[in-house]
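Worked Example 4.2. Consider the chain below.
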Amino acid sequence: MLPVLGISMGDPAGIGAEIAVKALCDHDWTGKCVPVVIGDYEAMQDAIRFTGRNCTLQKIEDPSQAVYSPNQIPLIDMGYLPPNSWEYKKVSALAGKAAFNYVRLGTELAMAGKTDAIVTGPINKESINLAGYHYSGHTEILAELTGTKDYAMLLIGGNLRVIHVTTHVSMREACDRITKERVYTVIRLAKQAMDLLGMPEAKIGVAGFNAHCSENGLFGDEEAKAIIPAIQQAQEEGIRVDGPVPPDTVFVKAQAGQYDIVVAMYHDQGHIPLKLAGFKLDLTTNKYTSMSGVNCTIGLPIIRSSVDHGTAFGKAGEGRANEESLVDAMEIAMTMAANRKAQS
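Applying the procedure from the previous section yields the following structure tokens:
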């Protein structure tokens, strides 16, 4: 059977509906998967209109009813948006409530086995919080909805894969969160991620936290107290892991193939190299010509992948959003779903 992918539409004031329409109309998934959008009819229909795509929406109540073709998009319409009730490019509680509940239903369907993965469109954190859902992002929402304690953010861009020890916290708090227990947990999650990607013999490189990995304590003690002991524990269990590697060279080595995945210590340490590799900006038009990359949450009882960009309010509703990252996220979700089934 083909994998069923639940695609949460994302914030309706952003580009989520548009990239869903483009990903499903301009790319043929027939014989590969059954995509089901979880969102709102009005937003999806408007995206079809302003992008000029020749496709229709199949309203369904359950993923088992989905019949996909590039001319027909299966949609579970949650009905949060009456006609003309939202405005593109604007933060609002209405949009936040809708976006949160698309994710909630998508998670419930995956947990119930009605879909094989959830692929999430971009949400706006301010809108989510205005609606009364106090989370710092998708990762934390999904962890709570699934009751998951140990999880981590994985970014994928080409042959570069990065999993994070800490993410949406201040640099001061990141220092406090780098413990032996957390670094060890993320090394194990890195191994789990590579198994899901079909690379069980993957080599893991662990980035240092301080400049030059602290130069034996001259610039800090996170390496000695947390990172090195965690690596040693993982090595004793047979995990192929190396480090700590100076953070200014570990990504160069990963791109060259020395490491299959890098454990990054904090948000920007991992995000900057991924976006440098996958995002391309044309200064003559001030537009991104490429926005590739995938965000996954590892450690959940379900498969979750996502676009690696935000709601792009600056171009929302204009028909010029790039769907490349959503296409990549769907491909990764299919790969992980297939490998999880093979392992079970």
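The mean pLDDT is 94. The two ends are 16 Å apart (CA to CA). Compare this with Example 4.1 before moving on.
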